[in-house]
Amino acid sequence: MSRTAAPPLPSPLSTPVAARRAADSARRRTSASLILRSVLEHGPVARSTVARLTGLSPASVTEYCARFAELGLIREAAAPRQSNGVGRPHVPVDLDDGRFVVGGVHVAVPYTTVAVLDLRGRVVAERRLPHGGRTDPGQVLARAADGLNALLAEVPGRRAALGVGVAAGGWVDRDSGTIVEHPLLGWLDVPVRDVIGARTGLPVHVDGHARALVDAERLFGRARGSRSVLHLFVGNVVDAAFATHDEVHHGHRSQAGAIAHLPLGAGTEPCDCGRVGCLQVELSERTLCRRAREAGVIDGVNPMHIVAAAADGDPVAVRLLVERARMVGRAAGLLLDVLNPDVVVVTEVGVVHREDCLAALRAEVGPERAASVSPTSFPDSVLAVAGGTVALDVLYRNPLGAAADLSESLT
């Protein structure tokens, strides 16, 4: 008589109780996120209005708001609003600007930016730390952490830091907190989260700067409420990020958005990969500055000097910036054809500072799609915002979890 094998034991996560607990936890996290983001977007706002905006019950909204107030994330506004003259006045709630901040670190090729941001994504303080040609990751990250610690100590009111966000170009793995590869810096498998965390004593979150800026636009910028957003970052590094229905696409090990070697039509610059006309070599600030030096416009490597020369009426500087914006428009057009987003945000020095560059970019995209393309919402602080938003996105996605992380770091 044959014996029938015993069925495998169910894993703990496959049991109805575990599944129900996981679903409840996800539901609570989503509800908390919806409520805090509604206060961010609409505050000062009555709890009843938050309930209507989120579709949650008034009792749930009241419960979460009470918890947020205990944690110091929101506060009641000073003046209550009358409820059509009938019943008790509605006391609106708003973000509490006076309790918490986040730290931000952005690692660029020539310098690192350290910053402090409030809960609305506004830059409270910012400092630039030039690398001076020394890009050893241990030294760069140690200086960044120490510089951020000093900046946090100077914040008025001694507000507590909820955490630190770190953003950079290249291949950044969010889950491991690692810069896997940054060719222009020569970095491989750099444990950014561990290094910054050890020197600041704070929770640290790491992501690519294009993805961080998509989150910044969704939370604090022009793309708030859009169903899909594409961000194209054109600096020394050229990369992109795409979000649909409030979720940024990361891909396996956060490799999504690597567009450096996409071909650009009519490109002439040779690339290290052996081809000609890759986006990064054609559009990078290194290429722009080299062309400006060859034309006698500048004698250094700062693209803002080209913008200044153009503002002073130098026709060659104007031509270089407009031509580059036109090529950026071609790159944006390629990505629009593939992804068809509602909104395209471009961070590029000419487009940010000059109307003729923005017009050239939009003309290349085409009149039927031009209105969907805009420059970054943060022209004066884009790198600081990128770093800080990595931490702020964590807060707004999981407010109670982020507050728990802070409690652990303070004990």
TrEMBL record:
Family: Belongs to the ROK (NagC/XylR) family.
Protein's name in the database: ROK family protein
Region feature (Disordered): 1-24
Coiled coil: none
Pfam families found in the cross-reference section: ROK
Superkingdom assignment: Bacteria
